[in-house]
Amino acid sequence: MAYAGLDNPDNGAASATGKRRRRSVRDIGVVLFEGFSLLTAGVIPEVFQMANEIGAARSKDGALYDVRFYSAEGGSVACSSSIDVWTYACDTRNASGFDALFIVGGEGAQSAARDERVVGWLREVLPLSEVVKPIGEGRMLLEAAGVGSSGASNGTADSPQQIAGAEGEDPGDAADRDEPAKTVLMLVKRDLGIEVARETAGRLSLRSPGLLAALLSDTSTTTQAEKVRASARWLKENCGRPISVSDAVRVAAMSERNFLRCFKQEIGVTPSEFLLQTRLDMTSRLLAETDLRIDKIAKRCGWINGDRLAKIFRKRMSLTPSEYRAQARRLAPDDPS
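The line above is the sequence of HTH araC/xylS-type domain-containing protein; the predicted structure tokens follow.
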């Protein structure tokens, strides 16, 4: 199985390198160090593995992505949560390039940036790798190897690294689950198509605005109407979270002015009205069908608190939430049982 999980599939081949074994397989490397962020590192093989499964189900070809973890000495490396992950050694004697190389963040990055074994290996493999993605504090290792953020990728202008963005990001924000997932999904989109990338994101519940915007950014295969409908689905699926119309604009990957115009034309109402009505529908259903407290329903439906919910309800329904609940239950048909 072309997938690197938390265990070593070869039980000790610590001198393995990033050499391409056959052209049909994409070699993916993930550089780790003591105290690395498992949240960041774990999503990389997770997304690639899901893409392997979906891609294999759609064709007779085998797995496309082979993901391996690397560290200074190889062997077991502990993350910040004290979970051990098996790695291959950063061996400069047989170093070769990767189709994509990720350098994760975490509290041990500063020490790793002083480890000449890792830095020397990076100097060898970086010029030979198509896409290089530092995540959060992982940039320290690139800088130690003499490569800044602006030179993090030597791929084409369409490389996932550049689409995902490397410059000007806040390391604290970049070191979460979304940043590496976005780059991986762009690679999947390039190699296997936008439908496989979308299905991969959906199965793993990767639905943040930035991720969906990256998947929808290919205007040659996605019309404005499709982008608007996708953003409307996203608003409906995420209305219980503290989201706004600005988030929907990012999901659609359109200018705000164009998005507002196209949304009204395609859906029939403005995005803000659509979000408001979606939340009201969800709130009304919970009031009628459950005994949840008003404050709890408010938080579950994205209203922040009960006072905000009550204000909106009085304005739109001419009833308080409690009055609506009582009325809905009076009008409900009797249970035949």
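Note on the example: The CA atoms of residues 49 and 183 lie 14 Å apart. The chain has 16 helices and six strands.
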